[in-house]
Backbone:
């Protein structure tokens, strides 16, 4: 077989593969994009508008007690192994820079599986997460998974925004864009300012 024939056949094969990919994409345009890692636990019975369950955790910034907070709270329940949680760190860092003085941020580990996907989660996993992904906001290890049992909504990350009066104002599971979260934080901070 000549080199020219091999080249022509190779190009034809590449063109056929590209055409097949285009046709498949057009026939499956609404394939869902996975934005959350599934949790094995049953979703917590959390109600938007309802009272936020109290919790306390030792964080990288000291003891965090929900009932002692005098401003709105931004809570993330995350898993150190979760790629969505890892990416969401950049979104939360941007929000923390903008709202950190008006909102109490806390991220709490909520999985019993460690960063290596094999061993049990430990304080070391949370510290390694902090070193590797650089959250600017306080994070906490919850070995008993108490916060996850109260707030986890079926997947990681779970994000919950709690107003100054300790009412849940927003809850979501999976990656959420900065614009949506900024709008939700504006609502609770504006309400907190109006209520002062």
Residues:
């Amino acid at each position: 077989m000549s080199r020219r024939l091999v080249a022509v056949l190779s190009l034809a094969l590449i063109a056929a593969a590209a055409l097949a990919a285009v046709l498949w994409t057009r026939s499956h345009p609404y394939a869902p994009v996975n934005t959350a890692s599934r949790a094995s636990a049953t979703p917590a019975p959390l109600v938007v508008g309802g009272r936020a369950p109290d919790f306390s955790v030792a964080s990288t910034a000291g003891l965090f007690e929900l009932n002692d907070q005098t401003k709105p709270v931004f809570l993330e329940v995350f898993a150190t192994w979760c790629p969505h949680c890892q990416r969401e760190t950049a979104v939360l860092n941007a929000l923390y820079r903008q709202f950190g003085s008006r909102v109490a941020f806390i991220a709490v580990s909520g999985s019993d599986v460690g960063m290596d996907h094999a061993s049990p989660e430990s304080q070391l996993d949370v510290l390694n997460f902090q070193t590797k992904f650089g959250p600017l906001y306080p994070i906490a290890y919850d070995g008993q998974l108490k916060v996850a049992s109260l707030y986890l909504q079926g997947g990681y990350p779970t994000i919950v925004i709690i107003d100054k009066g300790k009412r849940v104002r927003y809850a979501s599971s999976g990656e959420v864009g900065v614009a949506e979260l900024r709008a939700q934080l504006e609502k609770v901070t504006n309400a907190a300012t109006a209520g002062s």
In short: Residues 3-27 form the longest helix (25 residues). Residues 60 and 138 are 5 Å apart (CA to CA). The mean pLDDT is 87.
